[in-house]
Design brief:
By secondary structure, the protein is an alpha/beta fold. The chain has one domain (18-268): Alpha-Beta Barrel (TIM Barrel), CATH 3.20.20. It has 9 helices and 8 strands. The chain is globular and about 45 Å long.
């Protein structure tokens, strides 16, 4: 069984005005081979083509096609889900172009004008549609467990129910350890998901709100979570033919300096995951 590797999300470099290809080059300069790409697939066909060339030239792997802001905004009513599903399908197409196997989706929001039950039913049906489309090209759709209360799956219990109701073999869940920390979800809870976790995300916060503070400055027990999750991620990925990974998520004015600080911090706390697979 392959050992879990350390990856990183591309979004920290996107704010520097770099193209996606340039972001990938910057990431590769820090030794990473596994990258979670955050990119609007409608943005630029030329930029996407450049990114694929960089991935191939540098031997990088597109681990997950990540969420962009439009993936969250399905709270306007039933008609908004058509746009949401279309975005999911474009993510699948983009990730297939990059050679990856996973896209990340959220379950959407509800509001006073669009009640929880209505949003839940529409969300389940829409997620099934994205999963069915992804299955045609051998991809996995991964649910991002969002802790804010206006998401239909903002609790661990609702996430379990949602997974059951979507009921697709290629529908799995991502564990963001910062999300688990601020929701005070105990590690033992993830045992119910042990064969459904193809990746986890490394973030940090103070345990009271989802603010994504600098990694190593909050209360998230990163070393403990990595020890708990590694065998589950490795088991899941062995079943689906994927590379098991833990991806760093962060934002910083100087991402190159910050990612080196994070790598050193992880080593100091005993998290020794390889960068290469």
């Amino acid at each position: 069984m392959q050992e879990m590797v350390l990856g990183v999300r591309s979004s920290a470099w996107s704010k520097s005005g770099l193209t996606l290809g340039q972001q990938l080059q910057a990431i590769a300069a820090h030794g990473f081979k596994f990258v979670n790409i955050i990119f609007d697939p409608d943005q630029s066909a030329k930029e996407a083509k450049e990114a694929k060339r960089v991935l191939d030239d540098l031997g990088l792997y597109s681990g997950q096609m990540g969420v962009d802001v439009r993936s969250y905004n399905a709270a306007a009513g039933p008609d908004s889900w058509t746009l949401w599903v279309d975005m999911g399908k474009r993510k699948v197409d983009f990730q297939a172009q990059m050679g990856g196997k996973q896209i990340v989706m959220v379950a959407g929001r509800y509001s006073t004008d669009y009640p929880w039950h209505n949003a839940w039913v529409d969300s389940v049906r829409s997620m099934q549609a994205v999963c069915d489309y992804a299955a045609q090209v051998g991809q996995v759709v991964v649910l991002e467990y969002e802790p804010e209360i206006h998401y239909v799956t903002h609790t661990y219990e609702s996430t379990l129910t949602y997974l059951t109701q979507v009921d697709r073999d290629n529908f799995m869940v991502n564990i963001d350890i910062g999300h688990m920390n601020c929701m005070q979800t105990p590690p033992r809870a993830v045992h119910l998901l042990r064969a459904l976790i193809p990746q986890c995300h490394i973030t940090d916060n103070d345990g009271t709100e989802h603010h994504g503070g600098p990694i190593g400055t909050g209360t998230t027990d990163i070393a403990m979570w990595m020890e708990v999750l590694a065998p589950f991620v490795e088991e899941t990925c062995a079943q689906i033919g994927e590379i098991p990974s833990a991806a760093i998520e962060f934002g910083a004015a100087d991402p190159d300096a910050e990612i080196e600080r994070i790598k050193e911090h992880l080593k100091r706390i005993g998290v020794h995951l390889p960068l290469r697979f």
